[in-house]
Design a protein that fits this description.
Length: 372
């Protein structure tokens, strides 16, 4: 079988193209049931454990199940963890909801998906504008985190331009152009630069080149599945074609939501990240007090943040602001917060296999769940 045929066989595996039906909820923008697509990457599908190590990856603007192909898949196998990667609304095979219901619909979808998969607890790993979804998940669905070792990781977290001073030009983009962003993205990916990135485009498992035959970033020294590495030269272009063949209309809503543009956007329980962090800390203190009263002692919420050395989306100012939001809460009593800057990284490639961050996080998830 040729490498091309093997690559086609790989990307066609059903675990990358799972779906379930989310029930109707008119209050969350769904007068009818809608389909949700996701990747379910599992080391041993025939030996699944209800509370084995599991992580939900919440991608950036266009991030979803296609991010799982390649290095993420290899890492899930390497550390024997289950990795769930849902498509956001209006992306992939997931149905559309009105912009103002993106967050409420997400909060309906995630616990329904985990129940559908018989998964009790997960860690959270998020990139870029997935930060907005992740804080809402922490505030509404804290119960899905591990009861004694709750863990969340932010890779190049999104900070609004009003705090970062970066990407200021984005605030000047006409809303009519934002509405057309999916069409522009499709044109750019198929006609101009066949590989682009997942926070504002697609796929950071693929190396940072713009060549049609770009390879998945899977360095040999990191001991990834050789069967996947052998397909690297073919997978990059195939993944882009698959992604672009599906629905990407939700990308414009993602842009409106991220940039706080238009009149319909909503970040849920908070208006900005600093307010979200304050609410998370308040919630953790309430949980700690309740645990102390019950005689139990869950560990602190572990929050790990990885900043890019060169982040054009939020810049150093945005990174410092994000850190300061946590510092001013003086929350070391309930949150174990740490951050680091990843050398030679940018907003997009920080999640690449070469940087080793996802490898490290998956290893930590596997280790923490194994303590049960």
């Amino acid at each position: 079988m040729s490498i091309r045929d093997r690559a086609l066989e790989y990307v066609s595996q059903i675990r990358f193209h799972q779906s379930f039906v989310l029930s109707a909820n008119p209050d969350a923008g769904r007068p009818l049931p809608i389909r949700v697509t996701y990747a379910d990457l599992d080391y041993r599908p025939d030996e699944r454990k209800e509370d084995g190590p599991a992580v939900v990856v919440i991608g950036g603007m266009f991030g979803g199940r296609y991010m799982g192909m390649g290095s993420v898949d290899a890492l899930a196998k390497k550390y024997k963890i289950r990795c769930i990667m849902p498509d956001k609304f209006g992306l992939g095979g997931t149905g559309n909801v009105p912009l103002q219901y993106c967050i409420p619909a997400w909060l309906d979808m995630l616990p329904a998906l985990l129940a559908h998969l018989s998964i009790k607890h997960v860690a959270l790993l998020t990139h870029s504008n997935g930060t907005i979804y992740t804080f809402n998940t922490l505030l509404h669905l804290r119960r899905i985190l591990h009861p004694t070792r709750p863990f969340v990781a932010f890779l190049a977290p999104w900070v609004h331009t009003s705090h970062s001073g970066s990407s200021a030009a984005l605030s000047l983009v006409p809303e009519t152009l934002i509405t057309k962003w999916p069409s522009i993205a499709r044109f750019m990916s198929t006609k101009v630069a066949p590989v682009f990135t997942f926070s504002g485009g697609i796929i950071n498992n693929i190396s940072g080149t713009t060549l049609p035959d770009s390879q998945l970033d899977m360095p040999e020294h990191m001991n990834y599945d050789p069967d996947i590495r052998d397909l690297a030269s073919e997978l990059g272009g195939l993944i882009v074609k698959l992604f672009m063949a599906e629905n990407i209309q939700g990308g414009s809503d993602e842009a409106f939501l991220t940039l706080k543009r238009g009149t319909e956007w909503s970040w849920g329980l908070f208006e900005d990240i600093d307010e979200a962090i304050s609410k998370v800390v308040e919630q953790e203190r309430e949980l700690a007090a309740a645990a102390e009263h019950d005689g139990s002692g869950p560990e602190k919420l572990r929050v790990q943040v990885f900043f890019a050395e060169s982040d054009m989306m939020i810049g150093k100012q945005g990174q410092e602001w994000f850190n300061e939001c946590w510092r001013k809460e003086a929350c070391s009593d309930v949150v174990e917060y740490c951050n680091q800057t990843v050398p030679a990284s940018n907003h997009e490639n920080i999640a690449s296999a070469e940087k080793g961050i996802v490898d490290r996080l998956f290893r930590e998830v596997a280790s923490s769940f194994s303590h049960d």
